[in-house]
Structure formats: C-alpha cells, structure tokens
C-alpha cells in the first residue's frame, strides 16, 4: 500500500445514549442514517451523506469524555465557507449547545481559517471550520492554536 493514498475513512465514537447522539449529529452535521441497530446489547448507527459513511456511533461507554486521558483530542469537520459555519452555529444555538468561544473565531493569530468549537452530549470536543473568512474576530488563545486548548 502506498501511504500517499492514505486518507481518513470514517470516525467511530463511543457514546452513552445512541438515540440522543444520533439526533445530535444528524441535526448539527446534516447527515443521514445509513444503517443502525437500536435494540439489544450492541447498539450502533452509521451516519453519512450520499451513501458515504462519515461517522459511526457505538453505544458502549459510560460517563463523560475524558479530556485528561490519552486518545482523541477533538474532532474537526471542514465546511466550504464561513456561511456554512454560521448555519452550523445557528443550529447549535437552537439546540442550546454552549460554544467554547463566543461565536466564530480564527484558528490563531493572523489566521483566516476558523470556526465554532463545542462539545457533543457526551463531552466530545468538536469543531466546524472553514478554510477562510474567520479573520473578522480576534483569536481567543494567544500564542497557541485555538483548537489546541479548549
């Protein structure tokens, strides 16, 4: 296998409540259920768009996401433009999700890329960003990437 052809296929997340997380991810990321098992001991959902798998949810954990343990730091989703980030921000506010920073912020000092930072119902840190257009606000973290310490 050539590593130059390597790319992320999909991301799998452990969740505590499959129905709650499926609803959250469907609404925030505008994905559809490609397959699921909602009964029994092995509950899961495959989420994606146009038949392409993007995210899998596995109901097999308890508690909240541990930010002080090795493993996933945050999950970031790129959208085409800052208008798409604004639409996502509106959905998040409609759902009552608390944003880490006040609205859309750049990835760092002098960066044009940026977005919104928040957590899912289990505390998993998430980001929706655009490659440009977020330079209208000040960077909330001086001397470090915005996505690094939230």
Automatic annotation (TrEMBL):
Domain called VOC: residue spans: 7-131
Coiled coil (UniProt feature): none
Transmembrane segments: none
Record key words, sorted: Dioxygenase, Metal-binding, Oxidoreductase
Protein name: Glyoxalase/Bleomycin resistance protein/Dioxygenase superfamily protein
GO molecular function: dioxygenase activity; metal ion binding
Keyword field contains DNA repair: no
Any Pfam family hit: Glyoxalase
Domain of life of the organism encoding this protein: Bacteria
Keyword Acyltransferase: no
């Amino acid at each position: 296998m050539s590593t130059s052809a390597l790319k992320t296929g999909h991301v799998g997340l452990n969740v505590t409540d499959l129905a709650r997380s499926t609803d959250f991810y469907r609404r925030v990321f505008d994905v559809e259920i490609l397959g699921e098992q909602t009964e029994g001991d092995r509950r899961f959902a495959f989420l994606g768009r146009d038949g392409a798998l993007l995210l899998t949810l596995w109901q097999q954990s308890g508690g909240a996401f541990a930010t002080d343990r090795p493993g996933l730091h945050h999950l970031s989703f790129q959208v085409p433009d800052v208008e798409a980030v604004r639409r996502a921000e509106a959905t998040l506010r409609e759902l009552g999700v608390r944003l880490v920073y006040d609205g859309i912020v750049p990835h760092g000092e002098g960066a044009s890329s940026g977005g919104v930072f928040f957590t899912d119902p289990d505390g998993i840190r998430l980001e929706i960003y655009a490659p440009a257009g977020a330079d209208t606000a000040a960077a909330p973290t001086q001397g470090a990437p915005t996505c690094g310490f939230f």
